[in-house]
Amino acid sequence: MLSIVTLGDELLQKSSNYVEVFDKELSDYTDKMFEAMLKFKGIGLASVQVGRLDRIFVVQIPNDEPRVFINPEIIETSVEEDHYEEGCLSIPGVNADVIRPYYVKIQAYNLKGRPFKLEAEDLLARVIQHELDHLNGVLFIDHVDSELKNRLVTDYHQRKEKLAE
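Predicted structure:
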């Protein structure tokens, strides 16, 4: 079982590398990513969150199919934005209201190395943006003002220290 990289690990601040080989190992790896995501009750998971700097993320929102995005790029967003309280498996117990575009159009590759485009809105669009941020070394707390971010990070580390005692 893959384990989740958490806040404080510098890996989360790094940009991920493009995937060039589409083989059985890649397919097996994304299966393990889905297992970890579901075990920790997430709806999205980027490869960097399980310790690999590959441009891959997986998503499964309620009432939708599991989706794999390899070498993804957002090619269009809406002007319309939406507020939503986000959380992250890499920062357990921390939530904050984040403003993001309501709609995105993304292009990526599937497990066979075939390109596809997808239009998404609402929760799926938000999760795609959140996970793609991870591939660029950005966390959801980087989208809030610095005062709130500092408070969230401090609270997280204090809670983590108390649990370790």
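Summary: The helical segments are 24-39, 122-135, 146-164.
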